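Look over this record before class:
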Amino acid sequence: MAESAEHQFLSETFVSVLEKMSASRLYAYREAERGKFDFSCHLTENWDYSLDGQTLWKHTEGVDKDVRTLLVASDAQIRVYVARHTTKNRNTFYEAARDFRSHGHSRALNRLKVFWVPADFDADDEPARELLARQLAGEVTDDLLFNVVFGRLSAGAVRAILIGSGMMALETAVLHHIATSGFVNFSELRQRFEVSPSTLRDRVARLHMSRFLIQPRDGSQVYFVSPAGRAYLRLCEQLARHIRGEDLPEQTCDVLRLLEIEPDLEFRRNLSFSETWLGGRTPIAMFQLFATVAAGAALRWGVDWNQLSLRAHPDELDGSRWLEL
């Protein structure tokens, strides 16, 4: 059966959003074999997140089949359903989901993300195409990138790290050290940074509460950097380079705006690192503070932003992680 223009537009637009946002350099995008799905791709952060998706436009009777195909025939970490928003479609979807859950398949349902599209969308209407493309871009970035690939990175978490310290950029330097060299113990951190153990414990606790550091499920007293922490470090690396004169990709600027940070692309100056300056009262001030912290981590704490081989931990991809999304 031939695909409708709306069906084709939605499938193509969904993956184009993911491909375009990869220019932020926070993850890599590559296409995958579609097989029985309408679209498939891989999103690579430290892990390779596979994604399979189905699109529904005309045929309500296909909802149950689509849902079962995504939940049974796909082994992707992320399953996506882009569907026309009608009462009948939503009711059929929830009936299929309820049936699946009642048979003990909740874990598979936790990997399924649904994006509802206005029922009156007309692919032949150019303003409607532009509006829907913006809608999908916002929803995909928020729900898939920030909540999954970036590990629930949030504006509040970034703000807490940037303005919560009396020692400019210490948290960022500690995070970079754990991400690249691993966490051994606080004595090793004290020797590396030459600050007191109590100061380091406070900084590590703040990173942990911000979800930039996480611990294994077995309860061992070690830390490793989360996807949110790695996304934050990759942003720091780009801002440190921006201070030295490199341009920021448009998509990185989009990510910063979603973090309530307004890029000031004319920001160039000799930096002075005040121990008491908190700043960050406006989005532009937050950008200046973010860039200052990134550069300060390099200058004061010896962070090498050319070294960004970031470690990950196998616990990140176990089934329980999806229950948190």
